Amino acid sequence: MTQKVHPYIPNMVPKVQEEMLKVIGAKNIMELYSCIPDELKLKENMNIPPALTEYELRRHIEGILNKNTSTKEYLNFLGAGCWQHFIPAVCDEINQRSEFLTAYAGEPYEDHGRFHALFEYQSLVAELVDMDVVNVPTFDWGQAAATSIRMAARITGKKKVLLTKTTAPERRDIIINYGTPDLQFEFVHFDVKTGAMDLKDLKAKLTEDVAALYFENPSYLGFIEEQGPEISKLLKDNQSLMVVGVDPISLGVMAPPSHYGADIICGDLQPLGMHMNFSGGQAGFIATRDEVKFVQEFPSRLFGIVPTVKEGEYGFGDVYYDRTSFALREEGKESVGTQTALWGITAGVYLALLGPDGMYEVGQAIMQNSQYAVQRLNQIPNITGSCLNSPFFKEFIVDFNHTGLSVEELNKRLLEKKIFGGKDLSNEFPEFGQSALYCVTEVHTKEDIDYLVQSIKEVLEK
Hints:
This protein is of the alpha/beta class.
């Protein structure tokens, strides 16, 4: 059987493959996959169509993408980990610059301002969370949370980690997958009426082998955890670390976790100037105090500023590079791989553009809009606009238990009115029954919210 040379797959020319295999001492390509279990291997030939021209390929891909319905066409109240925020045009303008967009791993000799830009990003996020050290971004919040917890385990030398049950389900799965089998995980209960952490349950589970507690504030369910100082005291008395996940756009109006005792802060940069990209615009950050015990456990790159041999001149480069997996390779604490540095630069642009006053104004606008939405939803018979008796920021649980409709059916009918309704929580949090997580941000107008309320009324009256 003659092997076809595919134009989009490199090194398919038989002669080239033979030379490469000879160099590495392998008889054939399949020998490279000998470690993969046989039951996972595809036995039949793949049905790959003939190669398309560039124009045909573009038409094909655009045809697939055009089947999607975006938030430009429908009114959107979905959040739960990927949120719709206003993106200033300058964010797109700068992150599309060729020296940033095409930069890969890179070293100083091929760097054209990227290290400087990432240093500025780190400085701005550090100011936002009121910490000293911030890393070059990880893949997403889940990765950042999992790495933060791994760091806490290495710092304390303990193997048990507590997670609140209100942790975002997807992040919880990533954390547990990333920590297993080295770490053991246990959940702390919460008050179903308020969402707040059950401190009695926390005390009972704070044994001497607990490395850290991880919780999110604002939480996945939208409520604000107000017991931070009490939680911090319990952890410090037990010599355990407090790891807090945060939505950074909330920090224009909320105190950062460092103010109520957090040792490690992590979160998602997506609200800071990144389009949702069908959930593709994600990047995570980690922040700590400038203490050796924390800094030496960062597996990812950190950029700093140092004087050069020329007086008055400064340069930007890696800090404590020897601690990274790039330097240690297989002996590294973790392997972080390629990171989402472009999104770090974007977040830096967003924060520099808005400044403290702008972040405050955005936070105020979000809170005013979300409060208005809850008040209007409460006016609909048989609906509770926010079923948790706690303050919230931009997300809140809407109770539909007494409407006679499931959230799934309600959302289907809202689609007919060109509305993406809230996320159905009936599977993730069955204790809330037929409830949905709604998200309202600065992009929503009074007219948007009124249209949502009117549409829900019409759906329920049918």
